[in-house]
Amino acid sequence: MSGALPIAGRAEVRRAVLGEVRADKTLFAGMMLLAVLAAAAGLVGPWLLGGIVDAVQRAAGPGGGPGGTGGGPADVVAEVDRLALLIVAFTVVQAVLLRYAAYAGAKFGERTAARIRERFLDRTLALPPAVAERVPAGDLVARGTTDIATVATTLPGVVPDTAIALVQMAVVVVAIVALDPVLGALGLACLAGFGLATRWYLGRARPAYLAARAANSALADVLVTSAEGARTVDALALAGRRTEAVEAAVAETRRTSLATLRLRTVLFSAVEAAYVLPLSGILVAGAVLHERGSVSLGTVVAATMYIRQLVGPADVLLWSVELLQNASAAFARVEGLTSVPPAKRPEPADRPGGGARPDGAGPGGGAGPGGSPAEPSGDRIVVDQAFFAYDFGTDVLRGVDLVIRPGERLAVVGPSGAGKSTLGRLLAGIDPPRSGTVTVGGVPVAGLAPDRLRRQVLLVTQEQHVFQDSLRANLSLAAPAATDAQLHAALEAVGADWAARLPGGLDTGLGGPGHRVDGAQAQQISLARVILADPHTLVLDEATALLDPTAARAAERALAAVLHGRTVIAIAHRLHTAHDADRIAVMDHGRITELGTHDALVAAGGGYARLWHAWHGDSARGS
Ligand SMILES: Nc1ncnc2c1ncn2[C@@H]1O[C@H](COP(=O)(O)OP(=O)(O)OP(=O)(O)O)[C@@H](O)[C@H]1O
Fold first, then answer.
1. 314 and 421 both lie in a single domain
2. What CATH number does residue 36 fall under?
3. Considering the domain boundaries, does residue 364 fall inside one?
4. What is the CATH number of the domain that holds 418?
5. Do 280 and 390 share a domain, yes or no?
6. Using a 6 Å CB cutoff, which residues line ligand 1?
């Protein structure tokens, strides 16, 4: 997969929309029923108006039409009054029905928008770590904010309005055809012109709106990365280059937005013509037909009113089509997350490379009663012929075999890109191997539930995230049931004396308006979490590399407290860490090429010996 997240195709969007309708079908059906009733109530007014015209015409001379009764002038006035009252009554009924249809529609829209938001959040959280790390930050941010907001603000208004407008138009056209087929044909011509213009627009709108949204994402990405890298930008005097990148992104956003605007201007003019022409047509044709005596004046009036009635829903529909294009492009981007397979925490039975024996024993087995993953028996970590590739690319681990003895210190060294960090992720259960197995106590590490995994193996990296929350909440992440005494003990063990001086103690807010946490303190919080999680094995990947030397020494002291009594696998980017380890695994091109103690490897004169001499200088020979 490329860096960008996928975008859902038309068919997937259609399926998702139908799924939303099905999810709330009673409410949707209720809204449609109310819309039909409102449209039917709206038909009565023009028909009765035609009746008034015919009654008045009949009183003046021969003729007939809907509602006509004949009789003297007093009768005609009474008849007109009766019809006028009925028109008012039906107008009120239509308004009430429309109000409830709109209410049901808004409710449907809000509930649907809430479901879409929740699903997006679930899917974002389920993104495999490897995908989440590679996705441009701006793309995910734009999908989770502007795209979702577009869908959520459009749905409650536009979906019901569109449905109601479609129903009204269909009902009105049926009414005109029933009134008079010739006049009905003109009404249909109105719809056909409208349909043609919309079709022309829809063929071009999706790519144009997708391009506009992609440009918007790219702009967000440039802005986010410029803000995140502000210090680097300042240090390297890159402000000019970043400004150029922002200007280019703004220009692209403007260009793509103008392209959608051009489409809209053509559509609006074409549709305007599509319903003005039939209106003039119906007046001309109506006059001719009335002259010939084939239709009453009342029928012509009613048909003209019906055609006029098409304008309102057609306007709504036109506006909705425009908004829906924009929203459906946004929805396609939100739904695009569906095609990313969620991070899989495989059960022992379905691990690639198998190993799951029917009896549940063996390196890949370990299913407990009822199919749930078994509790690991022992702390031994075994990597057996592990292969791994990021995003279906080429293998970056190619048949790694390794047995880590409980309590040992193992250093993993090797050139950049050898696969050290990747092996660390597999050992900590963050990613499962593509084939082969990585087990702890006979159970696949990546198959363990998070709370169990935390007690087995933990990865400690240079990224120490402190959440904008209380110190207690930040620490309890690792051990939700920990007591205050345990939290204090963990802080003390990592030398976090500052925590005892916080005004609100464990309830002090960190970050934002609360206590400002510096890099060393963040590291201590992270190490205190490790103590609280209490895993038997730690995988350290450059845990202190980013801190300044003074802080690093303090952090290393804290780290020593954390490491005490645990198995440690240290991804060693500096060889002195390796020198102190019980054993050293040398990695190259995704394989372990050497494994042994420092002295044995130096004596063997292989790759490690060469790295050691190159790094340490000849004076270190034989050390
Ligand atoms: N998230 C990722 N997506 C795709 N490829 C990745 C990802 N992370 C690492 N790689 C690739 O996998 C290979 C192994 O990377 P890895 O980080 O495991 O090596 P390393 O030995 O730890 O290197 P370094 O010492 O530079 O950190 C490299 O070719 C790297 O480009």
1. no
2. 1.20.1560.10
3. no
4. 3.40.50.300
5. no
6. 130, 133-134, 390, 396, 414, 416-422, 573
Ligand 1 atom at minimum distance from 542 CA: 27
Amino acid at 431: D
Helix (H) or strand (E) holding 436: strand 435-440
Mean pLDDT for the stretch of residues 572-587 = 82
Pair 298, 398 in one domain: no
**Burial grade of 588 (CB within 10 A; 0-12, 13-18, 19 or more):** middle
pTM of the model: 0.58
The protein residue whose alpha carbon is closest to atom 5 in ligand 1 is 390
Does any domain span residue 54?
Answer: yes
Q: Are both 380 and 332 inside the same structural domain? A: no
Q: State the Cα–Cα distance between residues 149 and 155, nearest whole angstrom.
A: 10
**Going by CA atoms, what residue is nearest to atom 31 of ligand 1?**
417
If one compares 498 and 155, the residue with the highest pLDDT of the two is: 498
Q: Which among 390, 434, 573, 592 is the best mutation to test ligand 1's pocket, defined by most ligand atoms within 8 Å of the CB?
A: 390
Sheet of strand 395-404: strand arrangement: 395-404, 381-389, 435-440, 443-444
List the structure tokens of 465: 């995230």
| Owning domain of residue 482 | 349-356+376-620
Same domain for 169 and 215?
A: yes
436 and 325 share a domain? no
Same domain? For 145 and 66 the reply is yes
The span from the CA of 292 to the CA of 301, in Å, is: 16
Report pLDDT for 362: 37
pLDDT digit string, tens, across residues 231-261 = 776 777 677 788 888 899 999 999 999 999 9
Q: Is residue 278 part of a domain?
A: yes
422 pLDDT more than 60: yes
Give ipTM to 2 decimals: 0.97
Taken in order 310, 312, 318, 324, the sign of the CA dihedral is negative
> Is residue 592 one of the residues assigned to a domain?
yes
Quick one: the chain helix, strand, coil %, rounded to 5?
65, 10, 25
CB under 8 Å, gap of 24 or more: what pairs does 98-102 form? 98/34, 98/35, 98/38, 98/164, 100/34, 101/31, 101/34, 101/35, 101/38, 101/160, 101/164, 102/160, 102/161, 102/164
Do 66 and 153 share a structural domain?
A: yes
Count of structural domains within the chain: 2
Of 38-47, 504-513, 532-541, 613-622, the least confident: 613-622
